[in-house]
Amino acid sequence: MTYAIIETGGKQMRVEPGRFYDIELLPGEVESTVSIDKVFLLENNGSIQIGQPLVSGVTVEGTIMRHYRARKIIVYKMQPKKKTRKKRGHRQEMTRLMIDSISVNGAIIAEAVATEAVAVAA
Q1: Rounded to whole angstroms, how far apart are CA atoms 13 and 87?
Q2: How far apart are the C-alpha atoms of 33 and 37, rounded to whole Å?
Q3: In this structure, is the dihedral angle defined by the CA atoms of residues 6, 9, 11 and 13, taken in order, positive or negative?
Q4: Are the beta carbons of 99 and 73 closer than 8 angstroms?
Q5: pLDDT score at 66
Q6: What is the pTM of this model?
Q7: What is the pLDDT of residues 51-77, one digit of tens each?
Q8: Is 96 left (phi over 0), alpha (psi -120 to 50) or beta?
Q9: Residues 6 or more apart whose Cβ sits within 8 Å of residue 111
Q10: Within 10 Å of residue 35's Cβ, how many Cβ atoms?
Q11: By the 8 A CB rule, do 67 and 92 touch?
Q12: What sign for the dihedral angle of Cα 94, 98, 101, 102?
């Protein structure tokens, strides 16, 4: 199994090809390709490469599936005995990103398996 630890939106996450992840908003249109080169760790069939701070030559390719807004977060601040109350809400802009492949120096080492529906003739 091949995976990588990347940074996007100020957060680090473990990604694998063929899975989708919800991350902070990325610039780009739906169905466009995104390349992420901030890779901190790469694991490929038991061999681990750890960057200091980044692993050089490793890129993670992904496709933007959709943009959306996350659930609303309520921030409520209250000071007791002061009659001070503040209620604020916030919805974060998010992007759903499908990880297509992980490549080292341009050579793809892990790729998402294409699962196409095969119609069976009856």
Answers
A1: 31
A2: 13
A3: negative
A4: no
A5: 96
A6: 0.81
A7: 999 999 999 999 999 999 999 999 999
A8: beta
A9: 17, 100, 101
A10: 9
A11: no
A12: positive
